[in-house]
Write a structure and sequence with these properties.
- Forms a ring-shaped head-to-tail homodimer around DNA.
- Belongs to the beta sliding clamp family.
- Pfam families: DNA_pol3_beta (PF00712), DNA_pol3_beta_2 (PF02767), DNA_pol3_beta_3 (PF02768).
- Its main location: cytoplasm.
- The protein folds into three domains: about 110 residues, DNA Polymerase III, subunit A, domain 2 (DNA Polymerase III, Chain A, domain 2, Roll); about 110 residues, Roll (DNA Polymerase III, Chain A, domain 2), CATH 3.10.150.10; about 120 residues, DNA Polymerase III, subunit A, domain 2 (DNA Polymerase III, Chain A, domain 2).
- It has six helices and 26 strands.
- Helix 1 packs antiparallel against helix 2 and helix 5 packs antiparallel against helix 6.
- The longest helix has 17 residues.
- It is elongated, with a radius of gyration of 25 Å.
Length: about 375
């Protein structure tokens, strides 16, 4: 195999593939990057059996062929080279010779026989297509609410439910729920995508150039496509909670505030909440003001008035995990946020008048 390409083009493509390469595994070939050159195209793949990524890029192919090279070493070497034309030749013993300006580097590769190649030829028809930026934001606004505990594996994923012309992306962990809705052209059966996979895909499409993201749900995996990049993830199996029954509709109090102001106040309260290891803040509402405070302790105490428009009959005091309260604010770009309350022990709802397609539900903690 022999091909010619530019250092910056190859390195950029390898950065995408790197996200799917295994770092800790008992299967050595999963730590390699797969390369195939033919018809003036270089095909690159990484696969750690949880996620797989395949992409193609134009090159000048002088001799077709394929090889697996150790990903960490190969990517580091390409990244350290100057922005010059690269000539890469792989001999019959799978040894790659990289010629770059005054540099000549050799890397020993492996046969491609044992590499689990990402198959993208059986996708057929895509189930949904999204604006790349909107889809990246939707992932960002939901994945943090997925569970990290593997005991209930289904909760470590995000539900993709396509019905009535809407895609509902839902994450729950037993303490909170994040729901983001996007428009789709046709419905499809619900699937559960691991949040770790979505986190990697979100990083990739944030840097991608194409405007659209396509999605196809297969038997036990999902395929995302953006331009020349194909990303495949396994699906989680199991019964996702009936999330629509969790969302409250009746409220006794609410306030509207500037999102950044709210987030900044919580950030100052978080310092004390973490020191005392309670991670709890108290929100006190009256008809005149919203006061956010920490719980009193020997180490100290803090409280602050949050400028807000309040709607309430009487008073309300309620506690929340400060990190859970900050997450939706930190992952949004709204100017204003609305928080609604059912009772001092019932769920609260966070949304924004600027985004009617987002809902965040948070359970309180006892004070």
């Amino acid at each position: 195999m022999k091909f010619i390409t530019q250092q910056e083009d190859l390195y950029k493509s390898l950065q995408f593939v790197k996200s799917a390469v295994a770092t800790k595994t008992t299967i050595p070939i999963l730590t390699y990057v797969y390369m195939k050159a033919e018809n003036d195209t270089l095909y690159l793949q990484g696969n750690n059996l949880e996620i797989g990524l395949a992409l193609s890029m134009p090159v000048i192919v002088e001799e077709p062929g394929e090889v697996c090279l150790p990903a960490s070493l190969f990517i580091d070497v390409i990244g350290k080279l100057p922005e010059v034309t690269l000539e890469i030749h792989v001999n019959e013993r799978n040894r790659a010779v990289i010629h770059a300006g005054y540099s000549d580097i050799e890397i020993q590769g492996e046969s491609t026989e044992e590499f689990p190649k990402v198959e993208i030829g059986n996708i057929g028809e895509y189930h949904a297509s999204f604006d790349r930026i909107l889809f990246a934001k939707a992932i960002k606004q939901t994945i943090f609410a997925a569970a990290e505990d593997e005991i209930k594996q289904v909760l470590t994923g995000v539900l993709f439910e396509g019905k009535e012309g809407k895609l509902n992306m839902v994450a729950v962990d037993g303490h909170r729920l994040a729901l983001k809705t996007l428009e789709i052209e046709k419905d499809f059966a619900p699937i559960i995508v691991p949040s770790k996979s979505l986190k990697e895909w979100q990083k990739i499409i944030t840097k991608a150039m194409d405007d659209r993201v396509n999605m196809a749900a297969l038997d036990n995996q999902v395929v995302f496509n953006c331009g020349e990049i194909y990303f495949i993830s396994r699906l989680l199996q199991g019964q996702f909670p009936a999330y629509d029954k969790i969302i409250p509709t009746d409220f006794t109090a609410s306030f509207k505030a500037n999102r950044k102001d709210f987030l900044d106040v919580l950030g100052r309260m978080e310092v004390f909440a973490e020191i005392d290891q309670t991670n709890t803040v108290k929100i006190s509402l009256s008809s005149e003001e919203v006061v956010i405070s920490t719980l009193p302790s020997e180490r100290g105490f803090a409280k602050e008035v949050l400028p807000a428009e309040v709607e309430i009959d009487g008073n309300l005091e309620i506690g929340f995990n400060v990190e859970y309260l900050m997450d939706p604010l930190d992952n949004a770009d709204w100017d204003e946020v609305v928080m609604r309350f059912t009772s001092d022990l019932g769920p609260a709802l966070i949304t924004s008048p600027e985004d009617e397609n987002y809902t965040y539900i948070l359970m309180p903690v006892r004070l």
